[in-house]
Backbone:
């Protein structure tokens, strides 16, 4: 077919097949542990390897050029499908999510106003309603085939480009509840947010971005591992009001980014209820345990939250990005943003739902599509089985490390995040991590907890097992013993 607007559907089919073939090979190599996870190289070296300058000045890749470029790109990419990838909270995506990304790349259906993507918007509503049901809340009622129970309060929610934006959205909804005039008049300076110091940095960013300043993020009393202490929280809240400040929200981790530990959600939620405080559960990482019969108890009491953040791109096998902010009371979310943009809204809609009053983004990718495809292909059981396996592997790996001489683990894991160290020297942990990253065979992260530096493992890949980590520990011992 003739080329129109710079590309032809024939090229698309042929080059699409080529790229798909290269991608499938990349996944196969990762799964077979061929090559390393990633050898981190400097920008100039990578730019030269991909010949980026020439691509810009001399465009029009033919099939051979495209193959060469994608091969070089994949050779330098971080392979999360490799069992030795254990560094960051990014899912090992199901191929269904990648198909969703491909479809949305062709469709370019935006998710602010209904007519920009009615089918993808409908999928987003279905995903949000499904997540609400897992939290124990009512559906939004946006799909009349799935109404809330008669007389019950509809829930609310929207998908966002990441958990950071979801946390900001939840804080804006909390602010609207505490200070209804804040959108027009600015954030009252007497408001504070209370959360454990190990809360994800997106919470302090949200507090700072709202004009409160990070000094308005008050540390909730916590134990030596950073877990919130409900028995001491009441006195902390009293001190805040004695000082003439008002609590806008109390946040907890489910689970904490650095340690993977869950805060006591039920006790803190009940305290917030008694005092009429907005209760926020950051489940960006760990809310997915709600799907597991064996692990859901860790989120006991989540239904008492006012807002919950839940990332599908962390533990629901969905490619980045796909996160959700959910609220128990669906009327709370539109308060987060108040905008009369004449070019996008027309007041009451006759058909469908606009997401614009509930989300920060204007143009937003059809995030519901890719997660819906994963859910439809893997099923709830498949997603739950993946979580069970990751949690179980983490426990086995913790035993392996704790039993090995010269190594120590921070604590028993409560999720798929595990901190450990070799020897008793903070600088050694950094040296080990840098060396490992340079070699490229494994990938680890690190965290400072309790005043000490730890190597941090995030087991996102179900193929990462005791044997993989045994090899890693051997290598760490060799690095520790060497002086370079
Ligand atoms: C507990 C928690 N909340 C929020 C976030 C931010 O999520 P995102 O990376 O999707 O912006 C993270 C990311 O690691 C997290 O661990």
Residues:
């Amino acid at each position: 077919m003739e080329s129109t607007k710079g590309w032809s559907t024939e090229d698309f089919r042929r080059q699409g097949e080529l790229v798909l073939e290269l991608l499938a090979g990349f996944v196969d190599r990762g799964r077979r542990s061929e090559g390393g996870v990633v050898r981190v190289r400097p920008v100039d070296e990578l730019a030269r390897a991909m010949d980026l300058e020439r691509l810009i000045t001399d465009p029009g890749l033919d099939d051979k050029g495209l193959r060469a470029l994608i091969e070089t790109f994949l050779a330098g990419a971080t392979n999360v499908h490799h069992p030795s990838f254990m560094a960051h909270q990014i899912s090992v995506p199901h191929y269904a999510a990648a198909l969703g990304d491909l479809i949305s790349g062709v469709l370019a259906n935006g998710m602010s106003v209904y007519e920009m993507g009615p089918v993808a918007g409908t999928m987003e509503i279905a995903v949000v309603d499904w997540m609400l049901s897992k939290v124990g809340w009512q559906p939004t009622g946006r799909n009349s085939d799935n109404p809330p129970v008669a007389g019950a309060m509809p829930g609310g929610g929207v998908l966002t480009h990441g958990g950071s934006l979801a946390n900001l959205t939840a804080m804006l909804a909390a602010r609207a509840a505490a200070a209804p005039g804040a959108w027009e008049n600015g954030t009252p300076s007497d408001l504070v947010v209370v959360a454990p110091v190990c809360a994800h940095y997106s919470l302090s960013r949200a507090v700072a971005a709202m004009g409160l300043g990070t000094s308005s993020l008050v540390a909730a009393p916590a134990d030596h591992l950073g877990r919130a202490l409900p028995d001491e929280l009441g006195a902390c809240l009293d001190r805040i009001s004695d000082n003439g400040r008002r609590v806008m929200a109390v946040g907890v981790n489910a689970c904490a980014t650095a340690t993977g530990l869950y805060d006591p959600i039920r006790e803190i939620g009940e305290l917030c209820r008694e005092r009429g405080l907005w209760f926020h559960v950051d489940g960006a990482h760990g809310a997915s345990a709600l799907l597991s019969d064996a692990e859901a108890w860790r989120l006991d009491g989540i239904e008492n939250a006012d807002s919950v953040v839940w990332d599908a791109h962390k533990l629901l096998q969905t490619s980045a990005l796909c996160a959700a902010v959910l609220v128990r009371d669906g009327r709370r979310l539109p308060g987060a943003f108040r905008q009369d943009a004449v070019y996008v809204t027309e007041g009451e809609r006759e058909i469908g739902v606009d997401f614009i009053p509930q989300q920060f983004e204007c143009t937003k990718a059809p995030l519901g599509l890719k997660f819906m495809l994963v859910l439809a292909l893997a099923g709830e059981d498949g997603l739950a089985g993946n979580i069970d396996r990751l949690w179980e592997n983490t426990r086995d790996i913790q035993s392996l490390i704790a039993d090995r001489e010269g190594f120590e683990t921070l604590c028993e894991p409560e999720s798929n995040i595990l901190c450990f160290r070799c020897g008793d020297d903070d600088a050694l942990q950094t040296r080990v991590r840098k060396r490992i990253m340079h070699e490229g065979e494994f990938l680890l992260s690190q965290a400072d907890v309790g005043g000490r530096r730890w190597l941090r493992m995030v087991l996102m890949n179900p193929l990462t097992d005791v044997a993989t980590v045994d090899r890693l520990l051997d290598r760490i011992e060799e690095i520790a013993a060497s002086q370079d």
In short: DSSP finds 15 helices and eleven strands in the chain. Residues 89, 162-164, 167, 200, 202, 253, 257, 282, 284-285, 311, 323 surround pyridoxal-5'-phosphate (CB under 6 Å). Residues 367-403 form the longest helix (37 residues). The two ends are 59 Å apart (CA to CA).
